[in-house]
User: Fold these one by one.
Assistant:
Number 1:
Amino acid sequence: MSTRPLAGVLGHPVAHSLSPAIQNAAFRAAGLDWRYLKLPVPPERFTEVVRALPASGYRGANVTIPHKLAALELAGEATGAARAIGAANTLIFRAETIGADNTDAQGLLEAISTPVAGVRAVVLGAGGAGRAAVWALIQAGAGRVAVWNRTPEKARALARDLGAECAGHALEGGPDLLVNATSVGLDPSVPAGAALEALGLGGSEPPATVVDLVYRGDGGVTPVTAWATRGGARTIDGIEVLVQQGARSFELWTGRSAPLDAMRAAARSG
Ligand code: ATR
């Protein structure tokens, strides 16, 4: 019988996740005999599957669409980040209970890597990713955090909930930092110009720093990162944010510091 520790990513669908490549590279580089697997689980099976994982050798899991809320609800313990964001992307299977955390917020701040205290930021998007980004920037002491969304009521609700402002358009007030937390740019069949227009960025200059949470599995450049690079912005792509949030999850499960270079190399080679 194998006693090799396991971890995995719970999602539906999960076929295109880069997390197995990233985490298995991390285990190898850290000299840990762990294995990380894709765990495709439909919503109606989520709770029973998660509860069965610890006895099957699982030490932890990442959680992606559509299970982040259900993961928070089933956990016995949750961090302040997971509760405030209202979603968990990391589960830790402890002896007595299941712990839930959200490493998206910390991952974003690590990816930005320069202090955001006092910075004026606009976050595009008011879904789960937008919520994590707004919460992270407020926690880190950003000077102004404004949220813009195609459907303004959702931006208003998020802003009210987390104590952010609403932006009438993407570059309102000349921000220092722009975070694209919408799904715009994910679909390679949408022309780059149309994607930028959908976000109100067409024909404008980027701010000093731009983060695009969107990444494409094929390693393709996204419309927002191309626009930011062209305009001379410091540009942080979705792969770097994915690696950083994965690194925090790795540390929560193993108690070891994450081998970031190996994780980045694995993410970029798909
Ligand atoms: P996630 O959990 O990744 O944030 P989500 O909750 O589905 O995913 O949110 C997707 C975000 O992308 C939303 O802010 C959505 O805007 P709406 O609230 O108006 O739907 C945004 N989005 C998706 N397609 C868009 C488009 N074509 N133009 C502008 N925003 C778009």
Note: Residues 238-254 form the longest helix (17 residues).
Number 2:
Amino acid sequence: MKTRTALYPGTFDPMTLGHLDIIKRASKLCDKLVIAVAINHGKNPLFSLDERVEMVELAIEPLRAEIEVEVKPFEGLLIHFVESVGASVIVRGLRAVSDFEYEFQMAGMNDRLNPSIETVFLMADPQYQTIASRLVKEIARLGGDIGPFVTPDVEKRLKEKYA
Ligand code: ADP
């Protein structure tokens, strides 16, 4: 049987419970999940690439018993990375209508670049749907409680960043 590999790309700056929920859902749909952490200079991330990879690694540790999962940093064209890991599916999360326009264009362009790769959109559980890394960072910077939005590890790291 062919191994079905899915790739979930993102900046994960930092990883939130929304990302984690999408990862859990995606893991039910494939044999192997690659979580691709984008270098993403353009977004000027708060956390270094190594820190972002570490946060994802820690959060997904309990999932390793259930599915083959790898966390990999990547730079360059997404579709090339998808091809290089042998994935046939790109997983993206959709939160609100505001995500749609951008995701629609990305999925369309990636389909033109390689029509054999399918983009699949998943929605998080309603309690996680409004979580965005950008807002979590803003709340942490202003001293608010970010406990409901991230893992204890990420909460600790954010507090240290803004201490
Ligand atoms: P990117 O820079 O690629 O958008 P992000 O780390 O912000 O990276 O997001 C990665 C993916 O996870 C995107 O598809 C985004 O829509 C999705 N995502 C982020 N937070 C949530 C959430 N709370 N619920 C559902 N999907 C989410």
Note: The chain has a mean pLDDT of 96.
